[in-house]
Request: fold
Amino acid sequence: MTGGQEASINGTRAAATQRGQAKELRRLALLSAAAGLFAENGFTRVSLEDLGAAAGVSGPAVYRHFPGKQAVLGELLLSVSRDLLDGGLSVVAESEDPLSALTGLIRFQVDFALSNPDVIRVQDRDFGSLSEADQAEVRSLQRSYVETWVDVLARIHTGADISGLRVHAHAAFGLINSTPHSVRHHGRKIAVKSARPILEQMALAALTSV
Reply:
């Protein structure tokens, strides 16, 4: 292979990589726009043209990334559910003991809730608009995430009823997930620095006093 041929191949690879990166950035921009628009207006009131305009592309261009609006919703909620499960498992794997694992899980969930109030609202309101297959997968991922918490709680509260621990975990999610949105909804955007320690302390107190 000559030097010119090698340079041409490398140039083609670099261009392909750049195109791939640009495509991924546009896909992420569409998902981010979808979270905000779906949260504000509801899934049924948002068009592909709305999504494209918010992400800086034309409505038809959305089809280069997703087959339709329902697929955008599916990817939004599936990607979040996967990230939560992967993140929760990583927290537990990196913790030295059950209490530090629980503290880490709480910190992880609080960070998610404060960073993604729109996604939480979309999940609560528009879950039924997902395809049946996506609903089943999201539920499966979320059950696995809940069980990650329950397993840690069971190691802290040995001998406790597992179903009861599961209720406590769901109650903690309700506390953590609803607070950022409810405060913002009432016209006062919650300060992250103020909210974080309050939510972490309340969740830890509730889950360690089972």
The two ends are 70 Å apart (CA to CA). The mean pLDDT is 87.
